[in-house]
Amino acid sequence: MLFLKQHAKCLVLLSVLGAGILITAPFADFQDYLSQGDHGRDLYAAQAVYRGELPYKDFWWVYGPLMPYYYGLFFKIFGTHISSILLGKLILKILGGILICLGLMEVSSNMAAFLCACWFMLFQQDFFFTYNHLGGVVMMLGVAFCLLSYIQKNSMRAAWGGLGFIFTLCLIKINFGLASLAVCVITVVISDFVRRIPCNTAKKSFYTVAFIGLPLLTFIIYWSLLKGLSVMEIRQCLPYKEGDQPYIISPWIAISNFGQITWHTINTNWVNFTFAVMINASALRCIYLFAKNKIPSSRKIILVLSLSMLGLFYVANTHEYLKSGVWYRIFWAQPLTMMITFLLIDTASQSIPKVARKIILTSLAFLVIYCWFSLLGPVNAAKTDKQYLSLPRGGIYISNSPSWITTVEQTTDFLNKTLKPDELFFALPYDCLYYYLTGKKTPTRQLIFFEHIKIPAEQEKSVIAELKKNHVNYILLSSRAFARQELGLGFLGTSYCPLIGKYIQDNFTAIARFGDWNHEPGWAWNHGTLILKRK
To answer: Which position among 130, 277, 329, 360 has the lowest Cβ density within 10 Å, counted as fewest Cβ atoms?
Structure first.
C-alpha cells in the first residue's frame, strides 16, 4: 500500500497509457474518410519534406511548417504508407490524454484526471480533414498542464514550459499559438496579483521572452520560409485576412448555431443526456459550495484560478469558429470543456458521502467502457475487403464508397503504367492524393486551384511556365474542377484560372476517364478523373 501511495501518479499515467493503447488500437489501420484534396495535401507534404523540400517555398502549405516534418519522420521510420501517418496520430492522441491527466492531477483527484484523459481519447472530435491539427491540440493541452501547475505551485519552471509548448504550437497553427500566449501571460499576471507575488528578475525575463523573444523567433522562422513569395501567395498559405476564406458569419449567429448543435447533441442518446445532467448538477453544486463558503480558502483560490484559466482558454480557442461559423472549428476548444467538466464533477463530489462519490465515479467509468465497446463494433465492421485501399502507399481501411476506392486505384494504376520513371504530371484542381500515391513531385509549387484561392493572372502564368519547364505531358483533371453547389469552388477556366483553363484546352486531349462524372462532385465522394495528354 505504501508503494502504491508513493507512486500513485506514475501508476495513473501508466493506466492512461494502457487505456490509450486499447482505445486507439482499432484506428491503427482505419480512417473514416480519405479525401483526394485535404488528406492528399498532408500526405504529399510529409512526403515532400522527407525528400528535403520546404513548406511554402517548394509547395503550397496552409498551416504551420512543423507537422509535415513530424509525419515525415514516421514515413522515414515506418515506411511510406498511410498507416505510418495514422500511427503518428494515435501517438499524439495518447500524449494528449497523458497531458490532460497531468494537468488535472495538479488541481483534482487522480481518478477524475484519469477519467478525463480517457474521455478525451474516446470523444475528442477528430479534425476529419487534416492530420495537422491534432498536434496543435496536444501542444495546447501542454500549455494548460503548465498553467495549472503554475497556479498550484507558482513554479517558474512550469511557466517556462508553457512558453515552450506555445512556441511549438505557433509552428503548427500560428493564430492558436498567439491565443495561447495571451492566455498564458494573463494567467501568470492574475495568479501573481491574487497571491501578491512581486515581479522579480526571473519574472521580468519571462515577460521579455513572452512579449518579444517568442514572437520574434516565430516571425523569423516564418519569414525565412515565406521570403521570395508574392503577397498573394503568402495570403494563400496564411489565409487570415478578410476575404481569404469563403466562410464569414456574425459571431452572434455562430453562438446561436452552437447552442442549437449543443442541444441537439445532448438529446441524441442517453449517454449524452446522462453526462449533461452530471455536468449541470455538478456546476450547480459548485456554485452552492462557493456561495456557502464550504470550500477552504486556499482550495477556493486554486479552483477559481484554474476554472478561470480554462474558461479563458476555451473562449480564446473559439475565435476561428466565431468568425466563420464552420462547426468543426469549435473542436479546438473541446478538450478544455472536458477539463472544466471533470474539475467541476470532482469538486462537487468531494463534499458528498464517499459512497455517493464512488457511485458517480463508477458511473463515469462505466460510460467510458460502454462507449468504447460501442465505438469498437462499427470500426471493426467497416474493415472489409471492399473498404480496403490496396495500393502500396495505401494499405488502410476507409469509409469512402467502393466506387471512390475503385476510381482512385484505377487512376493511380493508369498513371503508374503510363508515366516514365522521371516523368511528372499535373493534378488539378485539388487532387494531391495522386502525387502521394504515385510518389511523384508536383510540377508546380501551387497545389490548389479553386475560386476562393483567388489566383491572379501573374500566378497563372508562372504555373504555366513551370509546366513547360518540367515538360509536363499529362494532366489529371478531377470532377471537382466543375463544382456547381459547394461554396468557393467554381468552374475551372470560367470562374477561376481562365489562362490555365485555356492552356489545357489548347494543348491537351483526353485519353482516359474514370469514376463518377454524373453526380455533383464531393469532398470524398462522387469522384471522377480525366487523364489528358499533350497533343
So the answer is: 277
pLDDT digits (tens, 9 = 90+) for 206-251: 999 999 999 999 999 999 999 999 999 999 999 988 777 778 888 8
Give the tens place of pLDDT for each residue, 415-464: 999 999 999 999 999 999 999 999 999 999 999 999 999 999 999 999 99
Q: Which residues pair with 278 in a beta bridge?
A: none
CB contact set of 476 (below 8 Å; sequence gap of 6+): 411, 415, 425, 426, 427, 428, 431, 434, 529, 530, 531, 532
Residue type, 5: K
| Burial class, 479, CB count within 10 angstroms (exposed 0-12 / middle 13-18 / buried 19+) | buried
Q: How far apart are CA 69 and CA 65, in angstroms?
A: 8
425 Cβ contact partners less than 8 Å away, ≥ 6 residues apart: 415, 419, 434, 438, 440, 443, 472, 474, 475, 476
Per DSSP, what are the bridge partners of residue 510? 532
Q: For the chain, first and last CA: distance in Å?
A: 80
pTM: 0.94
Residues 44 and 59: beta-carbon distance below 8 Å: yes
In sequence order, the 6+-apart residues with CB closer than 8 A to the CB of 415 are 425, 434, 438, 440, 474, 476, 531
Angle between helix axes 156-170 and 174-194 (nearest 10 degrees) is 160
Copy the grid coordinates of residue 123: 470523444
How many contiguous H segments (helices) and E segments (strands) does the chain have? Answer: 22, 7
**Beta-carbon contacts of residue 260 (< 8 Å; ≥ 6 apart):** none
